[in-house]
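Sanity check

After download, print the first record. It should look like this:
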Amino acid sequence: MPGTAILRGVATNTARSTGPLLLAVVSGLLHLLVGSFYVAGGLVIPGSVLVPLWMLWLLLTAWLVWLAVRGSWWTPLVPAVAAVVFAVVLVVGEQAFDWQA
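Expected structure tokens:
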């Protein structure tokens, strides 16, 4: 057929895999769950530490969106990092600065 030779070198399968998208949705839900702990952290964590912590959570949210748009499999790393940072800040604050509810 004339005209089909041009299309042989063109990739026609442009659909993205649903795996990374599904993983990104689950990661987003987990990040929201961790975010609820960031909000509740205001009961224990002073505002001078809490506001930068919220800003970090928002930065991590932007990173999660960026990874999801790229179709990356690394999206579960974002809520894990957010959870570890929150736990470390809370434990260090309670031990070193005697934060209490």
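If your output differs, re-run the checksum step. Summary of this record's structure: The chain has one domain: 18-96.
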